[in-house]
Structure formats: C-alpha cells, structure tokens
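USER: Please consider what follows.
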Amino acid sequence: MATDASELSKGGLSLGFAKLFFLIAGYAVSIALTRLVPPGTFGDYTVVSQIIAIPNMVLIQTLLFAVSRPMSAEFDAGLPSYDGLRRRGFRLAAGLGGLVAVVFILGADLLAEYALKDPALAGALRMVGIIPLIYAAYAVNVGTLNAIRKFQFQAGLDIFMAMTKTTLIVGAAAMGFGLAEILGGFTFASLLAFALSILFVARCRPRTAGGGAGPLPAMAEFTGLLLVFTAGVNLLQALDLVLLKQFTTTAAQKDALGFYSSANLVARVPYSMMNAVSLVMFPLIASLQAQSDRAQIERYVTATAKVSLFLLCFMSSVGAGAAPEVQRLLFPAAYGEAAGELRLLVWGMSGYSLTVTAAWIFNSSRRSQLALLLIAVPLVVVSAAGFVLVPQSFTSGAATAVAIGGAAGAIVSLVALARSLGAALSPVFLVKLLAAVALVEVVSRTWAPTSKPLILVKLALLAAAFLAAIVVTRAVTPAELRELRKKRAP
C-alpha cells in the first residue's frame, strides 16, 4: 500500500507539472504571436483555435474518461478486458472524431462564411479539421496510460505536445507563413504526439493484459452527459470571440478583435488556475457521496466554495486593478487598447470559473442535470447580451456581456450550492471579501508605472494589499486552506 501511495503521489506531481508546463507553453505561443503577426491575424488565430478547441476538448476528455474508468476498475484483476476496451475506444474515436473532422474539412467554406462571416478563414478551418480525429485516437492512448497508472508517461505526452506545438507554431510565424500554415503547426504537433503515444502504450502494456474477447464492462453512466457538459463549458469560453467575429466588418474592427483576444487570454488565467480545484475535489466529493455523508459533504463544499471565491477575487482584483500595466507587460504597446476590456473580462471569466467549479461539484455528487443547467445560465445570458451589445459597442460590448454572464452564473451557482447542498456563504465573509477588492482598486489608482520592473512591483503591492485585508479581517484562515488538502478517511 505504501508503494501504491508513493506511486500515486509521484504521478500526481508529474501530471501537475505537465499541466502547468502545457499552460505556460500555450500562453507563450500567444504572447509570441502578438509580436510576430499583425493584430488582425492574431485575432483570427485565436478565434479558429477556440473553435477547434471545443470538439477537441470534448473528445479528449470524454474518451479518456470512457477508456480509463472501466479499465481502472479492472487494474487489480489483471486487466482481462484490456484489448477489448481499447478496441471499443478506438471505434468510438473513429466514429465521433471522424464525424467532427468531416464536418470541419468538408464544411469549412460554410462555417467560415456563415458562422464566422469571413470566407478567408476556410483554409485555416480545413487545416485544423483533422485534429479532432487525431485527438480522439490520442485520448484512447492517454486514457490507457492513466488507467494502468503510467502517469509519468502520460505527463511526458503533455510536455511533448506543448513543446512541439510551441516550436512549430512560433517557428511558422517567425518564418513569415500565413494563418493556415501557422495553424498547421498545431496539426503536425498533434500527429507527432499521437505517434509517441502509440510507442508509450506499446512499451507499457501490462503482462497480465487480456484480449477482452468476452463481454466488456459498461462505460461510465454519465459519459453522454459528460460529453454535453464538456461541450457547454468549452463553448462558453469561446462564445464572445465567435460573436465578435460575426460582427467584424472593417480592418479597424479586425485589429480590435486581435487586441481583445490578448485581453481574453490574460483573463483566462484565474479560470485555468482554478481547474486544479475541480481535479482535487471531484474524487473527494464522489467518495463522500458514496458514503452518504451529507454533513461532511456540506462542510467540504462550503469550504471549497469559500476558498474558490477567495482565490478568484484575489487574482481578478489584481488583474483588473493593474489591467493597463498587465497589457503593457505582456504585449506590444498597441495592445494596451484592450485594458478596459480586460478589467471586465477578468471578472466575467472568474464568474465562469465559479460556475464550472460548482457544476463539477454537482457532477461528482451525481447531479449532472443540475450541472448542465448551471452551465446553460451564463451561455444564455452571454448570447443574449452579446447580440445586443456587440453591434453597438463591439469589443467593450463583448466584454460587458461576459461580465454580465459571469455574474449571473456565479450568483445562480452560489444559490444552487446553498439550496441543494447546504453550502451557504456568510454575508459577513462576502463583505470582507468585497472590502479587500475595494482596497486593491483604491491602491491601483495611486500609481501608474510604465517600466516593466516597476509594473511587477505594482502587481506585488496589489497582491499584498488584498492579502493584508484578508489577514486583518480573517476572511479566510490558514486552517481553512489546510483543511481542503486533507483527504477524508472512510
């Protein structure tokens, strides 16, 4: 048992490092592109990347789960259905991934003309169209490595994908290639990662693995719901960019979309960082649910909601307070035009993050329909607000729509957690949090540095101001943070 615990601990560290590396590499690509291509091209790159990310993430997360869960259940029994589960996974990958690839490749002209209002993007969409099929097959291999606990190999694939994607995309841009060729770097990187995954799976095949000739274990109960849920989550992140692209008619608006894309990228940092909360809490809440421990679930979900809101307000208040400086720090000077949008986007995306975190809590407690409903709230609100505001105010309208949608999602999520799981947050805690945010806003207006070293100093000062307010008011205590890290004993 000690050996198993050590293996899982090392694997968790490997995967954590790989995910962080992948995240940093993704931001490095976008920051590099703002310096290598015109703003309009960068905006188009971001839009196409976000559109293809929707089916990519749906396929990889759903197929990884569908393969890993039943295979993991057979691990101690020697994996008698190993080959059969993999064959079933590849059939599903070919069906789902192949269908999406056909839609993108054959329907690129229609998607570009009617969905994005830009026929020139057909070549770029066609270039990335094969990626969903590659990712679907890749997910089967990643799910296999996950199930047989070869976490270091799984982490290695993430790192390899990030490195090759960064090198090929940035290299293509540096050599002056167009948008389709730049995105072709993504396609080629996915092919290379898939080839490496085949080698890893072949090397790691367990000696006891069986052919799976008999009846196979059933897939997870909510695989279908997970597919719809993941699609909704990823659509939510891309919706503002798609709306903007539909209303882009002039060269100035195309550049403005590029500037907005940079702010959108920065605003995703709190969202991306909070993914770790979902990964940690999912198995713990599922375990407590299996034990029917209502009181323990209520305490844990309350603590999760409290700390999540604290972290989101911390990151968002600092990002919003120093929005002009952040844009100047990361991007060329022209991208500073999007500072106002960043102030709104960072709060809207934080609302998205809280909504998704709450939805995962309901998923892990077997309330997937409620999870889907929570994701639907900001989707509907952003769509409605965007169609009203974007034609009038363009990028500021899109950012306002995201802020409204994020706020709606956050409010509904907190109400749902309180009514369904008893995880109500104290009004006093919310007031303390609001006071910390207000302090950061006041401090941010006292100084506007222009040099990069001084910008970093300002960011540190804003962070210190927020944390000082939290410490003085005892809004969140170190004991509460430590409590979330403890795994409940059965």
Observations:
- Residues 1-220 form one domain.
- Residues 1-5 have pLDDT under 50 and may be disordered.
